[in-house]
Amino acid sequence: MGRIIECIPNFSEGRDKAKVESIVEVLRKAEGVKLLDYSSDADHNRTVVTAVGNPEALQAAIINMAEKVYEVIDMSTHEGGHPRMGALDVVPFVPIEGVTMEECVEIANNVGKVIGERFNIPVYLYEKAASASHRENLASVRKGQYEGFFTKIKEANWKPDYGPSEVNVKGGCIAIAAREPLVAFNVNLGTDKVEIADAIAKTVRHLGGGLRFVKAMGVKLEDRNIAQVSMNLVNYEKTAVYRAFEMVKMEAKRYGVPVVGSEVIGLVPMAALVRSAEYYLQIENFSMDQILEKRISE
Amino acid sequence: MGRIIECIPNFSEGRDKAKVESIVEVLRKAEGVKLLDYSSDADHNRTVVTAVGNPEALQAAIINMAEKVYEVIDMSTHEGGHPRMGALDVVPFVPIEGVTMEECVEIANNVGKVIGERFNIPVYLYEKAASASHRENLASVRKGQYEGFFTKIKEANWKPDYGPSEVNVKGGCIAIAAREPLVAFNVNLGTDKVEIADAIAKTVRHLGGGLRFVKAMGVKLEDRNIAQVSMNLVNYEKTAVYRAFEMVKMEAKRYGVPVVGSEVIGLVPMAALVRSAEYYLQIENFSMDQILEKRISE
């Protein structure tokens, strides 16, 4: 497959189809870049895009896409249910094949520098690209949102990594990251009590003393009348899918609640599932190079 | 990935490196074909090659390879520990991506016709390409081997599908197939008693009343001093890896023997392992299109 990175830009428009299309079109047309998916949410007034490509082509395409975003989106009139700090809100770069995390950190810096200087946007780097530990977590970076940044940006702790020290009124600010691939994995419980899902979520997640790379919350699936432990596995190499799954099962036992199923949302790296097959099948000395499709695409 | 088939030709030379290389070289140099693996066994005096490619390119390359095989190998002086019926012994075609089994049957027929006519070799089609049910099993087709075919070929039941009705003294005969991908999967037992592995193998395999697409036998791993149930899963879509694994575990219980591990030998289609992860993680409504690498390579 050569050298491949993934980028999942989120921008603050999810209602005006013509505007959304004009932005997505930049990635669709870019040479060396493949648009894998995009979905808009009208309540959130936000669109999430997934694209892959070689590092050089994808960086260039994201900068071209940013230009379009700053042309058509005006944050001074933006409303939506999802937290956001700018027109182009977050841009995480993820190493997929033949690229290291260090290179993705470099890419986040390159793109941040250009967006800061060319479009006059304050840039914050987060996750693996963060310039300080208090900036690693996106929720901390974005706290206060677009409206709050007009004062937050003046705090010593929140000087931007690139770009001006004043919020761009039309474009807002931007958060750019290098991070591991994320697996959205939900476990369905044989109960309608969301408080049980919530209690389990609190024990399996990092915040509650659980697994290092698990974020989790309890949600109710109204249509099926069951509760669900909804998780983000933010490093499936170190906190494997099967480990999160087995831990939910184990905790569910205390309530006499069975696990009735699970869901993988969106795209998932092959290794995340293959590693779980290895665990359950007790496979010794397996190498990902034994996967036929991997060998074919090399 | 486009349209991809796999071919695993086996030829009757495993000692003379120069000869082996001259044959393999044909596939290595072929446009639109990728040589994934080859290994020679001196005791067997035989080489097994794995190559993939688009159907047109791979067919052409296999015919060119056959020409080289018939030039350098002489069956009238061949000796080796593995059953064989010809210089180019078996040529199975396997659908991998965007190609149906029916198309592979057609390819097996096309290649068989050319090899029969151009090189004057009796051709037998087996597995999904078989022209009669008694020819489906390779062991039945190959029974008697090169030496036995001089009389076997005269039997009404064993008239070749293509080519002459007399054995080619130098090149022998050939068996060509279309078949499902095969998964070589072994389960290691916490005992040194090979008779327990043997007894388990007999219950899980099709022959003994077990799973439809499992071939199995017990073997001893001398270096680790443990017994192993060695299996070929000849249709992993219908007889899943996890099902064979769980059945071995279940049967091992009757002897109080634990399963201590397993091995996947050689290449394995991604889906074979992903389907097992789906089972153990109880994933609902999963689609292989959710695999990131699959989407990238499309």
UniProtKB/TrEMBL annotation, chains A, B:
Formiminotransferase N-terminal subdomain domain span: 3-180
UniProt cross-references to SMART domains, sorted A to Z: FTCD (SM01221), FTCD_N (SM01222)
Keywords: Cytoplasm, Folate-binding, Histidine metabolism, Transferase
Pathway involvement of the protein, from the record: Amino-acid degradation; L-histidine degradation into L-glutamate; L-glutamate from N-formimidoyl-L-glutamate (transferase route): step 1/1
Principal place of residence: cytoplasm
Keyword flag Cytoplasm: yes
GO MF annotation: an example: glutamate formimidoyltransferase activity
Subcellular location: Cytoplasm
UniProt-listed Enzyme Commission number(s): 2.1.2.5
Domain of life, source organism: Bacteria
InterPro entries named in the record: Formiminotransferase_C (IPR013802), Formiminotransferase_C_sf (IPR037070), Formiminotransferase_cat (IPR004227), Formiminotransferase_N (IPR012886), Formiminotransferase_N_sf (IPR037064), FormiminoTrfase_cat_dom_sf (IPR022384), FTCD (IPR051623)
Domain Formiminotransferase C-terminal subdomain as annotated: residue spans: 181-295
Entry keyword annotation includes Lipid metabolism: no
Protein name per its UniProtKB record: glutamate formimidoyltransferase
